[in-house]
């Protein structure tokens, strides 16, 4: 792979699982002699972009307003022609569409990731066709591989490469963090994170916490993330808690992996996905209470590194968390098991090798080809 020049197309480099995986992968590929570059189809002023640039990886914004944006496509073709990649790796549905346009008519081979749920309408149809035409599709889990098969991706073109996580950074000073969040020095914390939008996950977390707060008067729920649904979620908190509000919206926090070390439990309540948050919690040695969606069942060992409950079961989230809060020794045992599992099965230090094998196995075509 020493001569490889890989162009990574990213639909988004915001606070997404794909962006976090790219930020882990590309510096490691570069250390192995690969020359990576990133073209992001949205905002490039993000934490992942900053981290990639700090590692010496070129990141350029090539915004595409729509699938029919001629100026955006022209800019992307110009960038690809100048870089002359040996392969294009697209992350996200819109990136897969754009990558297909670059790989056609003798262009570089296309690898696709993070696009198992392409959506509906013309965009979903176009992304699905691009997935079927890709030279290789990388799934992060068996569940994701099944989703690709349902979209018509043939098995021979599928490769499973598990997600990765780094060792947790040092836990920050507890008193300083609590003071920054406006919490009392005796506060006990549950942490969760996600995009703030009208979905079941965070609203269910607020509901589950409302069950627990009567038993644990010093317990607080900290929600990390931003999004358009913050006002609605805040109103929901107020409607439940009245004058005993102990749910706190911390906004986007680049230091989330470190903050997790202060939690007594981490909630991962997404009907789909949530793998990166679960892995970061495990790496920090924190027990996880999660909805048992197909992605998380491959990461969290129920009864060993945390608890998996049925998707949508708020009462069981509270009940399982009650056990962890009431028996600190059990919580510590769960956390230690999770930390060991993260290091053994999902070590970021080993993530570059399977991707390098994928790139080595791609068909050889001329560099920089474009329509």
Task: Tell me about this structure.
This protein has two domains: 5-164 and 348-360, 3-Layer(aba) Sandwich (Rossmann fold), CATH 3.40.50.2000; 174-345, Glycogen Phosphorylase B (Rossmann fold, 3-Layer(aba) Sandwich). 42% of the residues lie in helices and 16% in strands. It contains 14 helices and 13 strands. It has helices at 17-31, 47-54, 70-83, 93-103, 121-133, 142-150, 174-181, 200-212, 230-241, 256-259, 275-283, 314-326, 328-345, 352-360; strands at 5-10, 35-40, 58-61, 87-91, 110-113, 136-139, 158-160, 188-193, 219-224, 247-251, 265-268, 288-291, 306-309. The strands form two sheets. It has a seven-stranded parallel sheet, with helices on both faces. It has a six-stranded parallel sheet with strand order 10-9-8-11-12-13, with helices on both faces. Helix 5 links the parallel strand 5 and strand 6. Helix 1 (17-31) runs parallel beside helix 2, helix 4 (93-103) crosses helix 5 (121-133) and helix 11 (275-283) packs across helix 13. Mean pLDDT is 92; it is low at 366-371. It is an enzyme of class 2 (transferase).
Keywords:
42% helix, disordered C terminus, elongated, glycosyltransferase, 371 residues, seven-stranded parallel sheet, six-stranded parallel sheet, Rossmann fold, Glyco_trans_1, alpha/beta
